[in-house]
Design brief:
Blueprint lengths: L11 E10 L2 E11 L4 E6 L5 H8 L7 E6 L2 E2 L5 H6 L2 E4 L11 H6 L5 E2 L2 E2 L1 H14 L16 H13 L5 E5 L7 H16 L3 E5 L3 H7 L2 E6 L2 E7 L5 H9 L4 H13 L9 E8 L3 E8 L4 E5 L6 H8 L7 E6 L2 E2 L5 H6 L2 E4 L14 H13 L7 H14 L16 H13 L5 E5 L7 H16 L3 E5 L3 H7 L2 E6 L2 E7 L6 H15 L1
Parallel strand pairs: 3-10, 3-11, 6-9, 9-10, 15-20, 15-21, 18-19, 19-20
Antiparallel strand pairs: 1-2, 1-4, 4-5, 7-8, 11-12, 13-14, 13-16, 16-17, 21-22
Helix pairs in contact: 4-5, 5-6, 9-15, 12-13, 12-14
Protein name: Sugar ABC transporter ATP-binding protein
Organism: Agromyces sp. G08B096
InterPro entries: AAA+_ATPase (IPR003593), ABC_carbohydrate_import_ATPase (IPR050107), ABC_transporter-like_ATP-bd (IPR003439), ABC_transporter-like_CS (IPR017871), P-loop_NTPase (IPR027417)
Amino acid sequence: MSTTDASASPIVEMTGVTVMIDETTVLRGIDFRLFPGEIHALMGGNGAGKSSLVKALTGAYRIAGGELRVDGEPVVLAGPAAAEAAGIAAAFQDVDLCGNLSIAENVMIGHEERGWSGISWRRTRSRAVEVLDELGLGDLDPKRAVSTLPPAIQQLVAIARAMVTHPKVLVLDEPTSSLDADEVATLFRALRRLRDHGVAILFVSHFLEQVYAISDRITVLRDAVGQGEYRTRELDRAVLISKMIGKDLTELRRIGSERRAHRVDPTGEPVYQATGVGRRGEFEATDLELHRGEVVGFGGLRGSGRSELGQLLSGVARRDSGTIRVDGREAALPNPAAALRRRVAYASEDRRDGGIIEELSVRDNIILALQGMRGWARPISRAERDALVERFMESLLIVAPGPDAPARQLSGGNQQKVLLARWLATRPHVLVLDEPTRGVDISAKVEIQARVAELAREGMAVVFISSELDEVVRLSDRIVILKDRRKIGEVSNGPGLSVDTIIEMIAADDEDDA
């Protein structure tokens, strides 16, 4: 439990804080408190201002109005170094470690222990072990290369690096986005140790269950404005969601109801037909048909081969068996460019390495695939580019300072929607969406799911891949059940289908194999 009591004073206090970026207000009159010995969750919908608050607190954004106090004293953070000097450290969603260096070198980078002849690696490793031990990782070999560590331990090494200077405040921005349940449990044990030693932890996450499991208090933002501060145990989940998105859960229920009402059994020739498609060691040969106007979900547990099958269907991975027909004609699809020419598009689950180019503008990210289809000898006119970008920014509710803003300035949910816009601009007949709502908040999730439903109504064939089975059931007309990198069944959606149905099918397959 939190060591915070009613008489404690906040270690961090924001009063009426406003932040402006390129004449756009990204935080408006925010009041925020963070106490020693607590884990404080920051929640909000898409573009709510979570990242802006983090950047203001860590010195990356200048505070234009209001006041920031640390330990009761007013401070002006001129940059991250000033934040570190004030006792504020951070570890971010994208773990920025040097994989070729050792654990000790990563933990102590910039803070190596020195002697008369330079860096003392013996003392540096000893200090790294001390910091790791505070996180319950004292048994790690400090000489081990970081690249050999699982994601959760890499995340803890990044936190250890932030803790080297003994900060009073630790800011964690989406630290669990790429972790599984066991890895999250490992991270949470370490965070509780830090909390119990008096560290104030700001925990930014879109995972509601994790927030309720780890946090003591919650602050909610919406549209750059604070919506209140609450004790976690006193805040009902439905109330939290309604404060985040400005409406209740009926929107998600409406999407599911509309999908069920829209559903019809596919008839006629499929727009896409895979026969015996597979790849040795990656996915067992399988058959699949896709019809216009339907959403086909891939349901399976971790390691079932959801992404692998999606990549085989869209030319991202090269198949070594089977045939593919698109619009009735055989198609080789040896690579994504060839697939795109046949109007088959794939949106990667990894928006950082396989999707968004952060240095490019929102406009350039959106038109990238379309320009690639046409070839660089036929540039898209400025008028057409502007019309396309304006249409998709409006229809997908993309929140950005403007179309010329670098994509790195956008929230994760908005980056995901820019990536979706890129593929929609190519007017695909078949769209494979791999984890389109991973790493986004509930508001962006609602918007993306609503757009997927709309695409099906417009006649597109959509493959919807998600690790969240409730999403798959909500959106899909048919669900392909996967396990151990093979297709074990296929089921039509309907009133009697639930997440439990899919899990039971997977479990029944275990019994059949026994």
